[in-house]
Model the fold of this input.
Amino acid sequence: MAGRPRKAVGVSKGKIGKEKRLSRKIQEEKIRVDRIQLEEGAPAWLSEEAAQEYMRIVHEAGKINLLDNIDRAFLAIYADNYSRYTAASLELQKNGMTVSTENGEVPSPYIKIAGDAATQIHRCSTKLGLAATDRLKLIVPVATDDKPKNKFLKYL
Done:
């Protein structure tokens, strides 16, 4: 079915009836899954640095209940590319942006590695809601009573 993706009930601004809103809220609660696998630890195949980043994100995202077990694969890819990016950046700092070959100076291969890893980090962080701008799409607005008061009501 083509069209716009469905929004969460709390973020939806369209006019929907109370029954439909309640139905959607129940559906959204049913799709929530546990975080047990996330909190057990990083996958064994991740490097030590990637595993530390994985657990850092699990801890921070746990404060707002952002991620669950289904997000584990994207989080592992994010952490792996984070580790790859930092390693490539360190190599670039140590050895410079170019390398000498028999054909002269050429760009370091670590530039491409860092660029590819940064692209994957960006894609995964968007999917996971790790950037503040991505999380803003997920925030449920809270109804407040901050409407301006009618200044003429005191005269009634």
In short: Helices lie at 18-31, 36-40, 48-62, 72-95, 109-128, 132-136. The chain has a mean pLDDT of 84. The two ends are 55 Å apart (CA to CA). Residues 81 and 117 are 5 Å apart (CA to CA).
